[in-house]
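User: Study the chain.
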Amino acid sequence: MPSQPAEIKAEDLPGGDGERYILAGEWRNHSISPVLKAFGDLEKSSGSGSLEIDVSGIDGIDTSGAWLIRRLMSAKAEQGRDAKLVGAEGTIEELVGALPEKTPAPPPNDQDKRSLFDRVFSPVGKTMTEFAGDFVAAMHILGSAVRGAQLKFGRGSGVSPASVVTHIDRMGVRAVPIILLMSFLIGAIIAQQGAFQLRYFGAEIFVVDLVGILQLREIGVLITAIMIAGRSGSAITAEIGSMKMREEIDALTVIGLNPVGVLVFPRLVALTIALPLLTIVANLSALYGAAVITLVYSGITFDTFLSRLKEAVDFSSVASGMIKAPFMALAIGIVAAVEGMKVGGSAESLGQHVTSSVVKSIFAVILIDAMFAIFYSAIDF
């Protein structure tokens, strides 16, 4: 039999010394809509004498219906009338009795009462505190990774060569196609824009100098590191984070292994090997892209391009970019591992820390590049 919607009607008590509200039907969230308007009118209505709320005709009730009844009783109490339930048994009595007489007031918004100084500098202090915590965690990750796979001294702590080779394949070899494509396009774009601008001065040949120095010293390693941060850094965070969610890291600790040494150290070694090699691939691809574009737009042949490149580029140009690669690789791996270890038990936490890993890794890569640029300038390298 289909349930009856909620009903409410008012009648005078015998003798005219008060009112009785008779409630019937299903007082549940999906069936109380028909009585909401009448209920609001009864709340606002004024009267005298006692008030009985007869709930014996209610077929079913949930928290929504019980809250309406409690709200009606509170409204009448504020008018100075004594409202009492009649026929309330079992679930109805328990639900209505468990609800507060008044709606709890929302907590005061202390945020708006803070001074301008607090509102401006509190986020700064929070950011600095988080940075300090991340730095300590990074040092712990680095030290634990170097310590090795075992928790106790005196036991074997070497890294598995098979694990390192596997991660080199995943992070390095499989990244070659995208590195080749992106670097080719970047080298071509730099050469094209440089040739167009230098043409006004009759110095198109110097576009070779521009591309060679810029690519080998800065762009090659920087773009490669950023792509690896987005590709491999996020993968490291996701892998470690998912293991953290499934408590596999705790299991490694229980059996006497160092989770950081087992999981992070092979990845750090693989990144440190793969990123310099990928930088070489990126530089060659970018220079080839530049050579093709200068041939098409400026008529500079490959022989002329290579001859000019030998004159413009020396050992310092090549070495200055390659020296940065291992440091950037370590930064990417450590940041990714720190964020992976911070993952909680939810998929939302995993997504947040993967995003944070990529952003922080890219920031670290650019910061390292800037520090090396200042250092090279200071030593005239």
